[in-house]
Write a structure and sequence with these properties.
Length: 192
């Protein structure tokens, strides 16, 4: 079983398309007491905190409603990211470890987190969930609110670009976990 040593502090950037199992992995790690629930932040969580729950699932709304919500959503989203980054920066300064749960498929999203860690003088690592496209699509079909084939395929394409790019982006370490990744995360500090 592969072991991944977590840094004592800093940022763990999860990278993977929808249905790659990011939230599932985090839930497992919390369940096994490897991490605490408070060590995870996500843009969804912050969208909810700054804008209440109506913006979290706007994509699942009928098109007419979604269009109306979209402008609000953009504004709430921008504020949610600001709030999340402020929280991350604070935690970095306190030498806390924080996982960021989002797809992180675009270089600018990853770059912001790398920059934030640099400014706070803490390590930043990438944990990449590499799941074959057909598995992503199968899982999407099983979901209560499927993301849709087209979106999953588009993300899978973008993920291929991501895989090529991350080596040179400035992560202190990056770990590509191939489906069905048997892996244990070990940390030097006790989370509890
Ligand atoms: P999103 O970015 O859309 O939130 P995600 O990467 O966080 O997606 P999850 O929410 O963890 O993905 O999982 C998506 C779906 O895939 C869920 O229905 C989940 O049960 C299933 N799934 C996740 N991991 C596995 C796994 N290892 N084996 C089988 N099914 C899985």
């Amino acid at each position: 079983q592969r072991e991944i040593q977590l840094p004592h502090a800093g940022i763990v950037v999860l990278i993977g398309p929808s249905n790659s199992g990011k939230s599932t992995l985090l839930a497992e790690l919390v369940e096994k007491d490897v991490i605490r629930a408070t060590e995870v932040v996500s843009s969804d969580q912050f969208r909810m905190l700054v804008g209440d729950d109506e913006y979290v699932e706007w994509r699942q709304r009928p098109r007419s409603e979604a269009d109306v919500l979209y402008a609000d959503y953009q504004q709430v989203s921008a504020k949610a990211f600001e709030a999340m980054e402020a929280m991350l920066a604070t935690r970095c300064r306190l030498n806390k470890l924080t996982w960021v749960d989002a797809t992180h498929l675009y270089p600018e999203d990853r770059g912001r987190l790398i920059e934030l860690a640099r400014k706070s003088h803490v390590p930043v690592i990438a944990v990449v969930l590499d799941v074959p496209e057909h598995v992503l699509l199968e899982r999407d079909d099983q979901r209560k609110h499927p993301r849709g084939r087209q979106r999953v395929k588009q993300q899978a394409q973008q993920f291929k670009r991501t895989l090529r790019a991350i080596r040179d982006e400035g992560f202190d370490a990056s770990y590509v976990l191939k489906h069905p990744y048997p892996v244990t995360f070990v940390r030097t500090t006790n989370p509890l």
